[in-house]
């Protein structure tokens, strides 16, 4: 900690991060151990976070993330979009195809950022806000593949004609980004996607992931 930082705020943010990384919640004792502070400090932190609905405690006393984070989450998409745009622009220009960043939204895949190439005579129209089932299209299938086999380099997923007749897609999941589940991909008017495109998509997904960390 430095003179310019707040120890209490730092601890509160660490509590939220710890709770976000668990599905079953944490007890005061567990939080105390992980933070390296006494239980009284943890009680005060939780009480403050509860007042803002950022944390809730169940009947068993375990602390969990509260619904108040949803209000904060509504502002996440614009921030994610801004961070991803440089890599998406480079991808679209390099490949000559429409590039997109897709995030999980409930049971659907949601395109939150789309960049079209500037030099092609034609390309697939794909708009931010477009939704589709996770099990259809390269973007969603790449996310599902990463769920089944979470590895450092999951490769890429290819599809053809699943979302638009005559269009093929390639996508690679975001890896190592806490709290965000998504993929980077391209869609093009082609019967198949060349291997070099798939590899380039993997590189772009890695660039976006690094920008979001």
From TrEMBL:
* The keyword NADP is annotated on this UniProt entry: no
Q: Keyword annotations for this protein? A: DNA-binding, Transcription, Transcription regulation
Boundaries of every HTH iclR-type domain copy: 6-67
Q: Which SMART domains match?
A: HTH_ICLR
What the entry lists under InterPro entries is as follows: GAF-like_dom_sf, HTH_MetabolicPath_Reg, Tscrpt_reg_IclR_C, Tscrpt_reg_IclR_N, WH-like_DNA-bd_sf, WH_DNA-bd_sf
Which residues does the UniProt record annotate as the domain IclR-ED?
68-213
Q: What's the protein here called?
A: Helix-turn-helix domain-containing protein
- Per the UniProt record, the source organism is Streptomyces lannensis
